[in-house]
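input
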Amino acid sequence: MLDIIFEDAHYVAINKPHGLLVHRTRIAEEKKEFALQMLRDQLGHKVYPIHRLDRGTSGVLLFAKTPEAAAPLVKLFEERETRKVYYAIVRGYILEEATIDNPIRPDKDHQHKEAQDAITNYKRIATVELPIPVGRYATARYSLVQVQPETGRMHQIRKHFAHIRHYIIGDKKHGDWRHNKMFLEELNSSSMLLHSSDLYFVHPFTNKQIHINAPLSANMSRLCCEFNWQELLVAHNAVLTQATDATPCEARA
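output
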């Protein structure tokens, strides 16, 4: 069962788990389950995706219940009239606050297309230094960042943080394999640590401001607890616990 975090007469949103594709794609033909199909079966009627999340990204994923409801909200996304907030754990001590303004070049399948403008704003929330050697360094440093993209290019956040060499942990394509390996072996964390936590938009039919929040995945929440970041996250309006796992950090340690 998918975790439905918002629903009204026109739209429904889920907290997409890490590893789940939005819909069928030829790049992962071996996959048998997709968010689109699972939500359709769960609700008993068709749904229409408004936007996308990478397979490795967890968090808010919004669908329309009819094509008529989808059209105006897709337009809001295209015209940058929505606000999206992500959280990520990245390599190194990143700057406290900055904007990454760097065009996104297409992937190999779309080399004929020109690079697209792409803007990502971020703010550092917390840092940690772990007494674990990675590469030639005796310790490993990481930052928790709040990310607000202004554009929505494919793999934008992942590519932008790779561009400034603060790779998102767990990103197998654009990340740093040495840090990914350390998180897997030392911290039992195999997933990409990028989460779409909040989505804001004006409802096309009611004209009300909508705010949808998706609690962090259990793995990312666990790591934030281990790094003593939970109070800082709460201060930034993030929810650390899943609806199905509301026990305090101390109880899960």
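quick obs: The longest helix spans residues 67-78.
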